[in-house]
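TICKET #2291
ISSUE: user wants both folds in one file
ATTACHMENT 1:
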Amino acid sequence: MLLKIGELARRTGLTVRTLHHYDAIGLLCPSARSDSGYRLYNRQDIARLHRIQALRRLDLALSDIASLLEGGSTDLQTVIEQQIALLDLQARRTIALRDRLKGLLEHVAGNVEPDLSDWLVTLEMMSMYDKYFTRDELATLRVLRDTADKDVTSQSKPLIAQIRSLMDRKVPPESSEAQSLSRAWMALVHERMGGDARLIRKLDAMHRNESAVQALTGVDGAMIDYMATASIARRLTVYRTYIGDKELPQLFEKFSTCRRSWLEAAAEVRDMVDKGVDPHSAAAQKLCAQWITLAATVWGDDPDVHEKIRLAHEKEPSLLIGTGVNKEVIAFLTSGIEHLLERQETKTGTSHA
């Protein structure tokens, strides 16, 4: 049985142009030609075309189909795995788009006459959040948004404007004005990120790296650093009532140097807590040792000072707001550090013996 290209196209539902393309790339070449020069397809050609169509239904690339039909290097398992990965990606994008549309619907529904510029700002901010946060994290952030203290969140724009005013007027971050605003700033960060150091770290990176976010929110790396310095100054004022005038200028410098390292460590601890990691495990013990080093860098090696700091955290819980350190993180570290110190004492005792 020999079929001309037009007849084969009609029988298979393909276009003549498609069959010409298959011929040009060597995917399906007619085995014969008529005396008049027409392409003629035999039974083997038609059978090959049906296999091509079957593989195309899997959305395989023509190059992969050719390799499969020729028994080349691209094996079927690899091709199937690639297709599954592609479909997984498409599914994630579809879900992300659905979530974004749902968020936009909430935004539009909340305004009788939604303003186009506000709507576009919301869309752009959602795109930025998608870039930095996982789907699970975005779901967490939506829950936090819905349960947030409205008094705290409603003050975000005025607060940012006040901070920017201080910065523009060159008011030092150690000033009483800046320290006062830092309390509200840390409360806002805590409220938006649920006190999770992992989310705080990502929010920090987003505001530092994305000029669009900076333009839309008024928050940039300079403002974050300004408020961090003000917050450290305010916290040290509180610590001072517990440890006295213990070299506060040096403490300020050490605290500032270790701030980001402490946030990173808190994020790792929070991750271990959520995953149910044993604080006595090797990975947790390594992190606890890192935490001890950070604490010693700031507070020194005097156990009495460390006990006073622990007491300060117990009596002044506001000290930890916005730092990513919560009760679960403290409990994990307490258990892990106690175990680490016991092991070190046992090891020391054994070596002396």
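ATTACHMENT 2:
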Amino acid sequence: MQNNILTIYDSFYLIGIGGVSMSSLAKYLKAIGKTVAGSDMAWGEYVEELKELGIIVSSNEQKEIIANYDIVVYTDAIREDDIQLTEARRLGKCVLSRGQFLYEVSKNFDKVIAVSGCHGKTTCTAMITHIFSAAGKGFFAHIGGKDKKFSNSYFCGGEFLITEACEYKKNFLLLQPDIAVILNSRPDHMECYGSEENLKKCYLQFADSSDINISLYGDLPAYGLTFGFDKNADYHAKCISDKNGRYSFSAYEGAHELGTVELQVYGKHNILNALAAIAVARSMQIPFRYIKKGLEDFKGVERRFEFIGKINGAECIADYAHHPDEIHATVRAARRLAYKKLFIVFQPHTYSRTKNLMKQFIRVLAPMNNLLIYRTFAAREYYDDGGSALTLAQKLKKSRYGDDVRDILDFIGEAGEEDLILFLGAGDIYDISKKLIENFSGIR
């Protein structure tokens, strides 16, 4: 454990506290006895959880409150001219980005496990959390989504930090993990990296910063531990069985069979997430009986192939998939469930991602029937026609474009009892879909 600002200062203010990562860090600060407060323009479920813990959350307009706190932390979604951020700097406060603060938090733990990759981070991090919980380890889990048992944050001791390592703005390079997991190095956030070559160099730099690195077999230059379907991977799966979209498999450590795991979540891609989690656990000498219990106790993460209700008798599933690879994996898992028709509503997340990965999106989406592309969730970005949802829809001959909720209603109104509706995307499509399910009968 190293000296850090958490051992020196007692009060912390988080700008953008309602986000999944920031709210998790706020919960941790509260758990270790710190004074914590924050602000956010959007008041979602995480803000409600913070308020239940007694954490004060205000709007971004109250700049005077900044003077009462030692440390100010801000999320990358906050603009540089934010009134509270500007005030913190004017007052000479210690100001840290979310990524810088996570590194400071990591110094409070004996070992740091950081999970990176274009997709799968949240599921794998949650799986590791369940395994370490089953094994009785002391840890803080910093999860980028809402696990059905632990939510986005769980603290039970200072031995391990289990965290997602976000590639946005190269934040994952701020960490110095003991175990670095690279689930995949597929291109994403190319506005930050410029090229796939530069992205892979950063993943290798991330791996080199750790004592133990674990990566997908064949994805990066071979060194460290590997996982994958290939029998040459250090951790691989055999005897794979599919039961209505949920998979069981025999886990192998080299030539040695560890035992059988029956996953409770959908999709063959989750075998890879489980193998990565197994590799982490075995690196820490956790017996397989706890690994098996943890993986089989894992019931999934909100917005990861989550059943959210029915419309006109058609079952609805929401998934965070916003990268072409994620969309491909999610749709493939849905098709194995043998519904009569599959209706897909996809909301692109940011103009830059859509523009940079346009060819990949077209390749994945073009074969799909019954597809509606919903207006882009811009997040931190300004409009760019070259990466807009409308441009993407126009390039897909079989798709529709939707600009408001009525367009979605018209589209999904064609679904019936034997069909499945997928709502895909990392933006507000999740909230929209849940409201549609709640109010559908009244609207129609």
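RESOLUTION: both attachments delivered.
EXTRA DETAIL ON ATTACHMENT 2: The chain has three domains: 5-103, 109-297, 306-443.
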